[in-house]
Each structure stands twice: as structure tokens, then as C-alpha cells.
Amino acid sequence: MSNIQQLQDLTTQVRRDILRMVHAVNSGHPGGSLGCTEFLVSLYQEVMNRKEGFDMNGIDEDLFFLSNGHISPVFYSVLARSGYFPVSELATFRKLNTRLQGHPTTHEGLPGIRVASGSLGQGLSVAIGAAQAKKLNNDNNLVYALTGDGELQEGQNWEAIMYASAKNVDNLIATVDYNRQQIDGSTKDVLNMGNLKAKFEAFDWDVLEITEGNNIETIIAGMNEAKSRTGKGKPVCVILHTEMGNGVDFMMHTHAWHGKAPSDEQLANALGQNAATLGDY
Hints:
The chain is an alpha/beta fold. It has helices at residues 4-25, 30-35, 37-47, 72-81, 123-136, 155-166, 187-191, 196-202, 216-228, 264-272, and strands spanning 63-66, 143-148, 172-178, 181-182, 185-186, 206-210, 236-241. α1 packs across α3 (37-47) and α5 (123-136) runs parallel beside α6. The two termini are 24 Å apart. The mean pLDDT is 96.
């Protein structure tokens, strides 16, 4: 168990990793990655029941599936700094012959990656299948999934959401990164989805909101509450209110940094706001 300061230090270092990875190849998705940093740090360091090492079957441990695979920088950094593969490998992000593709893939055998993602709308379906497999195997551990809010505009999600409640997949916690931004603008302007909480509840899910989705203590408390609601006949949805680009002032409150790399000057500015805590790769 880590203390909050340790988790905060790790979060700051992960932010530096994200910024440096995307800048080095002038390619990638910093905005959503920065917005989910606190969440993924909390998930892997505090919330999930994880075993040492990695195997694809994931028996007797919790599983996580990243559906919005474009936020791979934060996923890779958290995996590396949680011991899945060497931190130094982050330097290969999006380069030729790397295991760290722009969107996570499984064929390279990168530890921690359970499914190829990036074709939006599919991760929740995969997570439901894994959750049902755990039930069939009498494995009482949980399955976690993360989707984007804009991603929920994809129709397959709603088939999955309907299926999960109909089949009582109550060992699943699906978190929605509710930053209200997507690549072309605000979700409200691109395709307004209205009241997400009411929609999930209409599909017979148990829904809770974490309104401070960039606060580590609030995230841990909210996810522990979500865990306490599993096993009661309904899948659980967490609506996580985040700020895209969190921790870098000029990347916040806009969709502009969804998929754009910082310049040299912008990188220096951003890193100046996030001093190294655990050492850069």
C-alpha cells in the first residue's frame, strides 16, 4: 500500500513520461493521457488485485482493459512503473519495431497488454467476455474497463451495456473518462449524449460518479465504493469527471491537445510544471 504522496509523486513522473514520449516522435495523444493519469496510477497501485509478473489468462487476479487505446502513453508509463517491463523501454514509443505501438497491440507480447485497442467501441465487449469467463472459472476477482466519453458514441457500446445487465455481469466495473472533449471538439457539440448516468441506469446498471476525477484520494474512495457494489446482480459504471490535459495549464480546458505533440518550447514549459520525482527514463 502506497501513501498519497508516493502516488502523487508517481503521477507527476508519469505526466513527464507522457509529455516526453509524445514529444520525442511528434506523435501521440497527450490530452486524454494526462487526464487519466491519477486514475490509472490509483488503479494499478491501490485499487486492483494484481499478481507479480504477467500472464494472459489472468487467473486469480483482477483484469483491466483499456478501450480508448489512443491514451497509450499513460497506460505504457503506468505499466512500466508498476514493474511490467523496463521503464527504459518508454524511449521506444511509436518508433520502428517497438513493442509500444501508438495503440496497444498484443502480437508484440508487451507485458500488461491483454487486448489490442484503439478501434474505439470494442473494449467494453471484451471486458464483459472476460468477466463472464471469470464467473465460469469460479474466479471471484473483478474486471475493470476504461472507455472515453466520446467513445460511447459508438453503437457497439450500447449493445454491450444492454448485454451486461441482462446477463447479470456483476463482476465488472466500467469507468467512463468523462472529460467532455473529443478530437473534433466538445462531446456536446459533436454528438451530445445527454445524461450518461440516466442512460446507464436505464440499461439497469449501478452507477456512481467521481466528480473529482483528478484527485487521487477521491478516486481511491470512489473505486472502493464501486468494488463494494459488485456481486449484487448488476454491472457497475463509474462516471469519472476528469480534465483533459490535467497538470499542464495550457493543455487544459480545450480539446486541442487530444492528439497533438508539444513543441520543444512547450515541452520545456510543461515539464517545468511537473518536476521529476522518480527519475526520467
